[in-house]
Amino acid sequence: MKILIADDHAIVREGLKHILLKLPDDLLIEETSNGNEALAFIEREDYDFVILDISLPGMSGLEILKKLKIQNNKTPILILSMHPEEQFAIRALKSGAMGYVTKDRAGEDLLEAIMKISRGRKYVSPELAEYLASSLNVRSEDVPHQKLSEREFEIMVLLAKGISAKEIAEALFISEKTVGTHRFRIMEKMGMKKNTDLTFYAINHKLIDLF
Length: 211
Fold this sequence. Notes:
It contains ten helices and five strands; from the N terminus they run E-H-E-H-E-H-E-H-E-H-H-H-H-H-H. The chain has helices at residues 10-20, 35-44, 61-70, 85-94, 106-118, 126-134, 150-160, 165-172, 176-190, 195-204; strands at residues 2-6, 28-32, 49-53, 77-81, 99-102. A five-stranded parallel β-sheet has the order 2-1-3-4-5, sandwiched between helices. Helix 1 (10-20) links the parallel strand 1 (2-6) and strand 2 (28-32).
């Protein structure tokens, strides 16, 4: 089984490789810490599986999914993220991901997700399945954050958490000016004026935790 791990933290990649060694298959594991490089690898190589982080320098995991979907690239992608499922899982699955696992549950869920996806089925946790079921009656046009692009949504969640523009710029490897431009578009699309408006909205829609 040929697997690509795309995560910008070396310690996370090492931990994932340790977990993957429990698989019964012979493994060839490649790795990268950069989103642009990850996309190039996926376009060039024939992977059985890709474990992809959402927050990567160069290009986010969601942006990679979007490009692969346009290209009709069928490589199985499992999103591994520090963000809770309610924040990004639905967007990831709609963009073509085969599953979503949070980093704090990788030890428990990663192998199960890989085995399920390798059989051609999508993987979601029981908690996410319940959340998806409760969301079925909500029309996307009734939810303002559905109007946001993948990058805008990512920045909206960070702003709602009270993270500064400087910290967001550093985390996403973009300039503060770019963060400001995205913030303006987010506020315009969401019909809001202040970051606190985003915070209240995100809490009410379970996009961020109170604690």
